[in-house]
Specification:
The protein has 244 residues and is α+β, with helices and mostly antiparallel strands. It is built from four helices and eight strands.
Length: 244
C-alpha cells in the first residue's frame, strides 16, 4: 500500500506546477524579443546602405534630366540634377508640409527646360499663412538654372490626409495629380528639390535646400535592447525552474 504524500511534498509539486506557466511565457517572450532584435539588425543593414547611397548620390556630379532612364527612378533618389529653362508661374502649387524651420508649404512650380522637357520644381518652403497669389507673383519670369535633388513623386497623399485636387488641397507632392489639376504636361515620375536658383530671390521667395539627407541610425541600439530583454526573459525562466 502506497504511503500518502507528505504535505510538504504536495506543496512543492503544486508550486512547481504553478511555475511552469510563467516560465513558458518567459521563454515565448524571449523568442519574441530575439526575433525583434534580428529584425532590427536587418533594419540596421538597410539604413546603413541608405545612408551610404544617399551620400554618394548627393556628392556625385549633376545629371542632365535628358539622360534619365525610362521607368522607375527610385534608385536615383537624391541624385543631383541640373537644368535651365523658365518657370510656368500659372502652374504654381502649394503643398502643405513641415520642414526644419516649421510648418507651412512646399512651393512647386513647373520648369519648362531649354531641352523641351518640363519638370516640376520644389522651389523651397514657405511659412504657414502664405498665399498662392503672392507665390505666383514672386516666381522669376526670366531664364533660370536649377540644381537640386531628384525626388520620386508622392502619390495619393500623406498619412491620414488624402489630397483633394478638386479643392486644391495638397498634402503630398503627387506630381501627376498636380499637373493634371494645373493643365501642364510634366514628367510625372519626379520633382527636383531645389538647392538654389541662379537668380535674385524675391521678397516672398521660398527657402530652398531643406531636403533631409541625414537619417538617424539607432537600429544597433534597438537590437541590443531587444537581445538584452530576451536574455533577461531566459534568466527569469531559469530562476522559476530552479525554484521548482
Amino acid at each position: 500500500m502506497q504511503a500518502p504524500a507528505s504535505p510538504g511534498t504536495a506543496g512543492t509539486r503544486a508550486g512547481g506546477t504553478r511555475a511552469v506557466g510563467p516560465a513558458l511565457a518567459l521563454l515565448v517572450l524571449a523568442l519574441v524579443f530575439t526575433a525583434l532584435g534580428v529584425w532590427q539588425l536587418h533594419r540596421l543593414g538597410w539604413k546603413t546602405r541608405l545612408i551610404a547611397d544617399t551620400q554618394a548620390a548627393v556628392h556625385a556630379a549633376p545629371i542632365d534630366p535628358a539622360a534619365l532612364p525610362t521607368g522607375d527612378l527610385t534608385p536615383l533618389t537624391y541624385h543631383r540634377l541640373a537644368m535651365t529653362g523658365h518657370f510656368l508661374s500659372a502652374g504654381t502649387t502649394l503643398v502643405t508640409g513641415t520642414s526644419t524651420i516649421g510648418t507651412g508649404y512646399w512651393e512647386l512650380v513647373p520648369l519648362a527646360g531649354d531641352d523641351g522637357r518640363t519638370i516640376m520644381i520644389n522651389r523651397g518652403f514657405l511659412p504657414e499663412g502664405s498665399r498662392i497669389e503672392a507665390a505666383r507673383r514672386d516666381v522669376p519670369a526670366g531664364p533660370v538654372r536649377i540644381e537640386g535633388l531628384l525626388r520620386p513623386t508622392e502619390p495619393k497623399g500623406a498619412l491620414l490626409r488624402a489630397n483633394r485636387p478638386a479643392q486644391d488641397r495638397w498634402y503630398s507632392r503627387d506630381i501627376a495629380a498636380i499637373a493634371a489639376r494645373r493643365g501642364v504636361a510634366v514628367d510625372p515620375r519626379l520633382f527636383i528639390d531645389s538647392w538654389a536658383e541662379a537668380s535674385a530671390p524675391g521678397a516672398d521667395a521660398p527657402v530652398p535646400g531643406l531636403t533631409v539627407i541625414a537619417f538617424p541610425n539607432n537600429h544597433l541600439g534597438y537590437a541590443l535592447t531587444w537581445f538584452t530583454m530576451g536574455i533577461m526573459a531566459i534568466g527569469g525562466a531559469f530562476v522559476l525552474v530552479r525554484r521548482r
